[in-house]
Design goal:
Blueprint lengths: L3 E4 L5 H11 L6 H9 L3 E7 L5 E9 L3 E9 L8 H13 L6 E7 L3 H9 L3 E6 L10 E6 L9
């Protein structure tokens, strides 16, 4: 699906909340999204249709040794069209000049589709956070992607 990727803005929060509620049993609050949009260490991208409608988003936050993929969601009507992959690949492009930081995320152990997506993007399972999700105490799979290789000097 052809989408335009650009930074999320505060004016997008109504659409973000709608997608978030349709995507997760324990959705982030509007305040959590607003805080991420304001943090200088975070990068939030949205995927927009030609009409300007937001259909997905991804948020990463920079920490000492890693970029943490905080949230990825796509409107249920637009899933399985490569939008989440495109968002994450763009985030990797934008943050990839930092050879010291890899990428990490947590994902429900039951979310096999997301795990398959992340593995296809180079993430590997590195551990389990027991009882991580508050709605049902489900475990989270901790995944890691190595930093991009350093450019070889010519």
């Amino acid at each position: 699906m052809n989408v335009e990727l650009r930074r999320l803005e505060t004016r997008d929060l109504d659409a973000v909340e709608e997608i978030e509620r349709a995507s997760y049993p324990t959705p982030w609050s509007r305040a959590m999204f607003a805080a991420e949009l304001q943090k200088p260490s975070s990068l939030a991208l949205g995927a927009y249709r030609e009409t300007g409608e937001l259909v997905g988003y991804a948020i990463v936050s920079r920490y000492v040794d890693a970029w943490h993929v905080m949230n990825v969601a796509v409107d249920p009507e637009y899933r399985r069209r490569g939008i989440a992959r495109e968002l994450l690949e763009r985030l990797f492009d934008v943050t990839g000049a930092d050879p010291k930081r890899g990428y990490t995320l947590e994902v429900r152990v039951s979310n096999t589709e997301a795990i398959r997506l992340y593995e296809g993007l180079g993430f590997e399972a590195r551990g389990i956070r027991r009882g991580y999700y508050t709605d049902n105490r489900e475990d989270a799979l901790i995944m890691w992607r190595e930093p991009p290789p350093k450019e070889q000097a010519s």
